Amino acid sequence: MAIGIKELAQHLGLSIGTVSRALNDRPDVSPDSRKRVREAAEALGYVPNQSGRSLRSGATGVIAFMMQTGHETTGQGDSFFMSVFDGVQSVLARHQLDLVALLCPSDENADDYLKRMVSRRIADAFILSSTQTVDPRITFLAKQGMPFVTLGRSQTDGGQPWVDLDFAAMAQQAVDRLVAAGHRRIAMTVPQDGANLGRVFADAAQAALTAHGLPFDPDLMIAALPSERGGYEAAQRLATLPDRPTAVVLIDPSHTTGLYRGLTESGLAPGHDIAVVGRWGPQAAYLSPSLTHFREDLFACGVTLCEALLASMPTYAEKYPGGLVRALCPTVLVPGDSA
Amino acid sequence: MAIGIKELAQHLGLSIGTVSRALNDRPDVSPDSRKRVREAAEALGYVPNQSGRSLRSGATGVIAFMMQTGHETTGQGDSFFMSVFDGVQSVLARHQLDLVALLCPSDENADDYLKRMVSRRIADAFILSSTQTVDPRITFLAKQGMPFVTLGRSQTDGGQPWVDLDFAAMAQQAVDRLVAAGHRRIAMTVPQDGANLGRVFADAAQAALTAHGLPFDPDLMIAALPSERGGYEAAQRLATLPDRPTAVVLIDPSHTTGLYRGLTESGLAPGHDIAVVGRWGPQAAYLSPSLTHFREDLFACGVTLCEALLASMPTYAEKYPGGLVRALCPTVLVPGDSA
DNA sequence: CCGCAAACCGTAAACGTTTACGGCACTATG
DNA sequence: CATAGTGCCGTAAACGTTTACGGTTTGCGG
User: Fold this and answer.
1) Over pLDDT 90: what percentage of chain A?
2) CATH topology assigned to domain A167-296
3) In 3-state terms, what secondary structure has residue A324?
4) Is pLDDT above 70 for A114?
5) Which of residues 103-122 of A touch B (CB under 8 A)?
6) CA of A166, closest CA in chain B: separation in Å?
7) Which of B2, B122, B189, B312 is the most exposed place for a label (fewest CB within 10 A)?
8) A286, B119: Cβ pair inside 8 Å?
9) Can you give the pLDDT at residue A119?
10) Closest nt to A16 (CA→C1')?
11) Are B241 and B187 spatial neighbours (Cβ–Cβ below 8 Å)?
């Protein structure tokens, strides 16, 4: 069924060398031949064999986006990643590159999984998400010399570019707003596992509180799964806390629904008995009271992410000057009725 | 950095042929050599180059799962796909196969995208999701002779195996339950685009209604986007419908939150003024009143899906006898307070 | 001691590309 | 006219692997 470059060349009465050059837009090919080859390839439905091509050239033309997907760690909801993907792909399309998503099975170690994928040489570069505060994947890829970028920072530094949401700014803005509204005891949800964003967020919150001359109470940092359930359990914790806080800031978009439900069940009205500041998620728009939240431009974030990656790849670096990219994506606070 | 089979053979004082045979568990290799090769490969960190391997053997060892991701079509939420993925991967792991997800950019035609991916020969087989009632991807893959399976049925038949949720049973059970509770005018949400499940669902609902001697009113089939917003807009439609229905069945898990909100805003209490039967989604657990819904074993669904695919691939068929698999995954109705 | 089979191993061809190199025809220049 | 240069093209090697084939050793029965 599928024809090779040999057949195509034969059909044209040319050598495979010339055909290859014509298709790859190299010099040393007459405009006439180039056109003939183009048309014949189209007509015969020729597409180059990727295995042969990448065996020879050492590149696959594929970028891999690795995500971890535990049972409970569904995280931000898929619209989060999908928006980022769209941004990434819009950049990749300029270079005939394609994106694949690597889904680490929930029962496999993320580090092992990544190693397997790297050794498969399925992709020319990697994008890591859900970075942990200490993340062995980073050192591994750095040691391998494999180009990569992380969506999220980490204490482990592989010299790679990264792009992250500005959690510090979020924490500060949230605290500022709540304090201005008279709140003195402010709780927050933080990730249960080693996700780095929890650390960044908590540190910034502490700084913001002390800046206002308020004490920082570690008991008000409520560890929660990144899911509706996490929000629900956080609400239960909140309700039973001694000297109950009057406000809560949510680190994860999926916390919102669960928290609202949990608070209501405990007889606390969100936005009335307890002020809530959250992050944007598709479901947040349909809550009452409407959520005071942070909105992020995930598409733009994906674009930056991808450009940062390409800038770190020898092949594409010239098109993306400026060296190592380490960028924070801005977020804007959208006031609602909840805080 | 990465060493090849040649270096490995040289280091062992063996020929590359023997090394290859040893690593691939072929006969004609002494147990002693096999062991030495194994250990040396481990020690030197040798991993076979996938390009070379698949160039020679014509297989990549990768299965691709294609999903479409429009802005508004975030669909079932990611926990849906993640659960299916886990099921699929659990089977693939038995054969040293790996899964990648292909995310069709929202601004690209799905058919073109698939063609590109197929021609890249990035995978040995494909899994298609979000099947449309008439789906050109199916005929394309069938014509290409590329093994594939669809998650969801279609009127387009490529002779391929498929696995689908039992939407007909859901429709019938929902109608039965609602009619038994005294409801006579029952609305449903159906997908706006050409998704095949809408057709199946609507047909079964109609049959169930007529079986109960009730009329089928097409105006009660409310087209809705597969998102919270879709549910919200459906609620608005519902509230303004002449001779307002007393019950609604939701085809998409993400409809629930939006619908609850929409109804509430219109002064209608879910479960009281209007009975609601929905599908399971992560957020559904945190709603009040609790949702009467269908629960699906998505992991098992993924397992069946993958086995169906492997059974249709020449290389693996012998391990999965039984011919063409076309299966419906069962769902169970979980009663709640909403209907 | 010979022959034969079995067990093991090396050789080399193939998979489909890309690309360095050399060759040919032609033109421009001295 | 000789020479150098240019534009175009074919040849062949290389990428890293798998595998058919043939060769060498070994053990064993006659």
Assistant:
1) 71
2) Rossmann fold (3.40.50)
3) coil
4) yes
5) 103, 105-107, 116-117, 119-122
6) 24
7) B2
8) no
9) 84
10) D10
11) yes
Does residue B73 carry a pLDDT above 70? no
The nearest CA of chain A is from the CA of B60 a distance in Å of: 9
Confidence band, pLDDT 50/70/90 cuts, at residue A298: very high
- Distance (Å, rounded) from C-alpha B130 to C-alpha B128? 7
Task: Give domain limits for chain B.
Answer: 5-48, 62-165+298-330, 167-296
Token pair for B175: 């109608």
**What are A212-218's contacts with CB under 8 Å, separation 24+?**
A212/A175, A212/A176, A212/A179, A214/A179, A214/A184, A217/A185
Is residue A71 pLDDT above 50, yes or no?
A: no
Residue A262: burial class (beta carbons within 10 Å; 0-12, 13-18, 19+): buried
Residue A240 contacts strand C, CB under 7 A: no
* Predicted confidence band of residue B246 (pLDDT cuts 50, 70, 90): very high
A232 touches chain B (CB under 8 A): yes
- The 3-state DSSP class for residue B99 equals strand
Question: What is residue A96's predicted lDDT score, i.e. its pLDDT?
Answer: 87
CB contact under 8 A, A51 and B49: no
Superfamily name with CATH number, domain B62-165+298-330: Response regulator (3.40.50.2300)
Rounded to whole angstroms, the Cα distance separating B206 from A264 reads: 38
Residues contacting residue B106 through CB under 8 Å, at least 6 positions apart: A86, B69, B70, B71
Residue of B nearest to A231 (CA): B286
Q: Are A290 and A339 in contact (CB under 8 A)?
A: no
Q: Distance of CA A284 to CAs A254, A294, B258, Å?
A: 9, 11, 10
- Cis before B27 (ω within 30): no
Residue A1 binned pLDDT confidence (cut-offs 50, 70, 90): low
From A75-79, A241-245, B153-157, the region with the lowest mean pLDDT: A75-79
- pLDDT at B198 (0 to 100): 92
Share of residues in chain B with pLDDT > 90 (%): 69
Same fold, A62-165+298-330 and A167-296: yes
Q: Are strands A326-329 and B62-68 parallel, antiparallel or unpaired?
A: unpaired
Task: In whole angstroms, give the CA distance from residue B264 to residue B256.
Answer: 12
Backbone φ/ψ region at A327: left (φ over 0), alpha (ψ -120 to 50), beta: beta
Kindly provide the residue ranges of all beta strands, DSSP E only, lying in chain B, ordered along the sequence: 62-68, 98-104, 125-128, 148-151, 162-165, 186-191, 221-224, 247-249, 275-279, 292-296, 326-329, 331-334
The upper half-sphere exposure of residue A207, i.e. CA atoms within 13 Å in the direction of its Cβ, equals 13
**Cα distance between residue A38 and residue A32, in whole Å:** 10
Q: Among A172-181, B22-31, B212-221, where is mean pLDDT lowest?
A: B22-31
d(CA B185, CA B199): 20
Proximity of residue A20 CB to strand C below 7 A: yes
Q: What is the mean pLDDT of residues B205-221?
A: 94
User: How many angstroms separate the CA of A37 from the C1' of D20?
Assistant: 36
Q: Report how far residue B174's alpha carbon sits from residue B185's, in angstroms, rounded to the nearest whole number.
A: 13
Task: Read off the pLDDT of each residue in A81-95 and give the average, rounded to a whole number.
Answer: 92
As a CATH number, domain B5-48 is 1.10.260.40
Residue indicated by tokens 């390409």: A310
Separation CA A67–CA A126 (nearest Å): 11
Q: State the DSSP code for A270.
A: B
Nearest Cα residue in chain A from B64? A100
Amino acid letter, B173: Q
Q: What is the pLDDT of residues B84-93, one digit of tens each?
A: 999 999 999 9
Instruction: Tell if the CB–CB gap between A282 and B74 is shorter than 8 Å.
Output: yes
